[in-house]
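Researcher: Quick one. four chains, 380 residues in total.
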Amino acid sequence: MELLEESGETALSLRAVARRAGVSPAAPYRHYADRQALDSAIAAVGYRELAEWLAAAHPSPSTPEQLASVAVAYVQFALERPALFRIMFGESCDRDNDERVAATAAVSAYVRSIAQRTFPQADAEALATAIWALVHGLAFLYLDGKLDAPTPSAVADRVTAAIQALLTVTRPDARPSPGESRSGAGSPGV
Amino acid sequence: MELLEESGETALSLRAVARRAGVSPAAPYRHYADRQALDSAIAAVGYRELAEWLAAAHPSPSTPEQLASVAVAYVQFALERPALFRIMFGESCDRDNDERVAATAAVSAYVRSIAQRTFPQADAEALATAIWALVHGLAFLYLDGKLDAPTPSAVADRVTAAIQALLTVTRPDARPSPGESRSGAGSPGV
DNA sequence: GACTCGATGTTTACAGTGCTCACATTATCG
DNA sequence: CGATAATGTGAGCACTGTAAACATCGAGTC
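Model:
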């Protein structure tokens, strides 16, 4: 974890960990089966810290505004600890790691409870999935620079705006406009 | 690209590319400055293929249902070509790579045009961000096994359900309590 | 045609990595 | 106290990214 905070994810190696611990390069293999096991262990810790971080933003959100503040916290976590976040989510998950599955299940349950509390009338399962995905996607798009993140507060504003936008969209009683598709104007160019 | 499809992202190395090309280990350096440059080039191709893939799902969506079909396509792309998708989004983006920024800008514009067409009355910018994030998040959560993906059609169903759930949520009349800023004041450590 | 020069490829080399194995040390507990 | 499990060590292998010096080859010019 120290290495991650100091020098990012590329600096993380079993050998570097060994050096930091003042121990021979092979020693870590007594504690972690392989590199992936180390990653899983770190990720598990990360999930727990993420849960605490979110709870600190709001222990039990029950309004869209409170939900938004937790969403902002999620994105902030990703941006403040990018290396950790990438290890938590940017790799194929080792599904055999119990610690790891338990921790992610906890996050998942937490999101579901928020969804249920905030929108009791909705399909909680689907809504929870959607909310987690929305927030998770925002985090990654910012992390990858697909969305500009000039200042933390600008990010916070855009996150809340995005959530606001989705929640306030009223389903247009879809009568497809007779004129129909404005010629390929919106097709993906490139 | 061949290497990616055949053996996943871990099999991708400059040396492996050289071998595949029947050429010495140092030869690729005449074409790519370093490993990251190779990744960027691959990613740029990936963005273009993603754009085509989405356009194939629906050339210019203008209803929530059509939007959902494009969303499903996005997630499918991620699941069918995980290694490519991870290179496109799972690494810190090299912002100096022109090809790359252009391609992602195109995707971004594409999403915005969909948002605008489908929900003309909404804040297009924010909504586009939200939709992209939602879909992107779904893709990553599935990719990482945070959401179970038993069959492609089950995934498709859950993706549409998630979008449906978000779009049909009616906003409960919860007016922001006075004094609470909407940009997430109350979240820790900002 | 000879000649230059830029693009491309080759060789060799170095440092860092994951990982294994045989061996040493230490700690714990019966 | 001594057996035994836990932990650490060293050397070594195959692989990676990257660099530098050297070779080749092709297109265009005199």
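Residues 13-16, 25-26, 29, 34-35 of chain B lie near DNA strand D (CB under 10 Å from a C1').
Researcher: Thanks, that's what I needed.
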